Structure to design on (624 residues):
């Protein structure tokens, strides 16, 4: 006790000593409210937003276990057969759902396997550029596709890949090869989908790696140069280990989201000729639910997806922590 | 001996530098060429387009496609409506994000952890498409233009970016203001917001791009074509034209004009963003970096 007193008197705050946070003296509720009511008032609108738009729709999840009818309220609707799991069973007997499930997983995994390394490699390349202006120009250009909507990217893809008049096919035909059906053939569509995804996001995703690289101490590079390390040795032994934790966290986050499905990208890019490869869970729910009004079935599908997603995410987080990395949750 | 090996070493480095420059130029071209092709097509004459002669430089230069687009009241209306929506949404979202982020940086605020958890959960668990749809129906928001504004007016991710930035502002600044008797609201207006201009610019860009590029909410909740945002209109146009092409391959009227028109519409609806984002580069890089730093 006396020692602490001494420290305070001398004004010394030793680094190894945990700074003691002054515990707020017990104050009556009225004083606390008088002091902080403004902050709660500021929070009122955002909290109302979350209650209304994020939490209240969760009530409708019950529909997954009930037989939906337009004229009844959710409480009045009769429970579905098989202890309420009728629609989950129906979903797994539905061919379109199984395609959508498979495609969601396959497309997400391909995105990771093919697309994940691209921004890392790009960041490594950018880091080697000496001319500041050139580096900045390349960055600006590479960020551009991120700002295009998927509808626009689809429009661009049509201009590039249409069999008769697309730029890429014109070049292919000029060289004497037959035109490639990039968007009309299932297997090609998958490649185009993955390629466009990389095109849209690699520049943007490189930002985070560049930031991590800029945090590496320059002394390490200097020391390596003195030891005669070449470019690749420095990349391999300094830069990559320096951004390892960023890579691991982002990879795990991506793996945790393997059943997640964004709507804009697949919906904009798909067409009727490739549905077997292009339908994913989000577009399946849209078509079966909002278009064909099978609310119970699609709510069940949505719930299945949400729950699996949360489980994957928690697992990924646990895995990340166990590897000694920063968690994501 | 020593000298020559050093020379070889520096030569290798130089060659390596140029190889990397070359690869980067290639990457930049891959990003740019599709846009250049699009621009060339939108400015080309129909004859050249039919003969498939337009690559990267417009042939038979003219602005016909653009005048056609600009004469069509449908596009102008959608453009104006989307611009208006984007403006409203951006302001509302910035206000909401600030309201949400600011109180949560006060360690003494009771219930802060609970509120943080309450908000973060919504990032990872979503009720789903159909429950959201039914909610909109219940609230009378289907076919209501408000549905394009209100439900998306707060993004947790963006709020976290702002909160991280607020955390970075020295506490001593606000404490001295508090001692001078300033209320929390005054501190927000007079200290936090002025200091946060760069991150607010980033968030404005994120929100504006999200609204300008978004079409799925309108697709699901909006049947009234008058309120279609530009992207949904574009989606319908591209798809109708595309369907025709799939069915009849080559046999429709003036395919050249259709093609330059399509290209012009795509250019028309993406130009605003392409003009803005390069100027905000410094800011959004900071924003992305802040977003990665969770508490």
């Amino acid at each position: 006790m006396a020692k602490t007193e001494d420290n305070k008197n001398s004004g010394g705050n030793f680094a190894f000593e945990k700074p003691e946070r002054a515990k707020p003296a017990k104050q009556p509720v009225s004083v606390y409210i008088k002091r902080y009511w403004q902050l709660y008032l500021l929070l009122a609108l955002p909290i109302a937003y979350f209650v209304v738009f994020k939490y209240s729709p969760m009530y409708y999840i019950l529909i997954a276990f009930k037989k939906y009818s337009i004229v009844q309220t959710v409480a009045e609707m009769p429970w579905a057969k098989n202890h309420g799991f009728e629609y989950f069973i129906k979903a797994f007997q539905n061919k379109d759902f199984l395609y959508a499930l498979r495609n969601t997983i396959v497309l997400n995994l391909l995105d990771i396997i093919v697309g994940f390394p691209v921004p890392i490699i790009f960041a490594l390349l950018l880091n080697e550029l000496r001319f500041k202006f050139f580096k900045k120009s390349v960055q600006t250009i590479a960020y551009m596709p991120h700002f295009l909507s998927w509808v626009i990217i689809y429009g661009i893809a049509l201009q590039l890949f249409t069999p008769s008049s697309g730029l890429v096919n014109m070049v292919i035909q000029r060289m004497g090869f037959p035109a490639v059906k990039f968007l009309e053939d299932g297997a090609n569509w998958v490649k185009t989908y993955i390629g466009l995804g990389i095109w849209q996001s690699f520049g943007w995703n490189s930002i985070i790696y560049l930031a991590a690289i800029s945090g590496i101490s320059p002394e390490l590079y200097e020391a390596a140069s003195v030891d005669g390390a070449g470019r690749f040795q420095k990349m391999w032994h300094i830069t990559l280990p320096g951004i390892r934790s960023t890579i691991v966290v982002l990879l795990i986050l991506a793996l945790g989201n393997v059943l997640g499905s964004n709507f804009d990208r697949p919906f904009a890019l798909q067409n009727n000729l490739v549905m077997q490869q292009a339908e994913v869970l989000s577009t399946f729910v849209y078509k079966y639910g909002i278009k064909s009004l099978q609310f119970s079935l699609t709510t069940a599908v949505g719930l299945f997806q949400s729950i699996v997603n949360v489980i994957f995410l928690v697992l990924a987080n646990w895995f990340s922590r166990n590897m000694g990395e920063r968690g994501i949750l | 001996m020593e000298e020559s090996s050093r020379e070889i070493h520096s030569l290798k480095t130089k060659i390596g530098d140029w190889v990397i420059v070359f690869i980067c130029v290639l990457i930049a071209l891959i990003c740019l060429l599709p846009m250049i092709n699009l621009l060339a097509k939108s400015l080309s004459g129909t004859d050249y387009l039919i003969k498939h002669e337009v690559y990267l430089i417009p042939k038979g230069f003219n602005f016909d496609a653009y005048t056609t687009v600009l004469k069509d009241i449908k596009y102008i209306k959608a453009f104006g409506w989307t611009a208006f929506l984007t403006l409203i949404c951006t302001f509302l979202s910035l206000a909401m994000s600030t309201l949400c982020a600011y109180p949560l940086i006060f360690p003494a605020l009771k219930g802060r952890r609970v509120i943080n958890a309450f908000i973060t959960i919504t990032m990872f668990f979503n009720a789903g498409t159909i429950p959201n749809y039914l909610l909109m129906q219940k609230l009378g928001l289907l076919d209501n233009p408000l549905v394009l504004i209100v439900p998306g007016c707060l993004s947790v991710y963006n709020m976290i970016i702002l909160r991280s930035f607020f955390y970075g502002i020295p506490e001593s600044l606000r404490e001295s203001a508090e001692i001078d008797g300033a209320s929390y609201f005054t501190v927000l207006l007079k200290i936090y917001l002025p200091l946060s201009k760069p991150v607010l610019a980033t968030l404005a860009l994120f929100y504006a791009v999200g609204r300008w590029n978004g079409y799925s909410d309108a697709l699901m909740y909006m049947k009234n074509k008058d309120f279609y945002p530009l992207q949904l209109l574009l989606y319908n146009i591209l798809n109708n034209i595309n369907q025709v092409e799939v069915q009849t391959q080559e046999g429709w009227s003036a395919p050249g004009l259709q093609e330059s028109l399509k290209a012009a519409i795509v250019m028309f609806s993406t130009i605003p963003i392409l003009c803005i984002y390069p100027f905000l580069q410094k800011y959004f890089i900071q924003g992305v970096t802040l977003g990665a730093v969770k508490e």
Summary: Residues 86-322 of chain A form a domain with the MetI-like fold fold (CATH 1.10.3720.10). Chain A is about 65% helix and 0% strand. Residues 186-214 of chain A form the longest helix (29 residues).
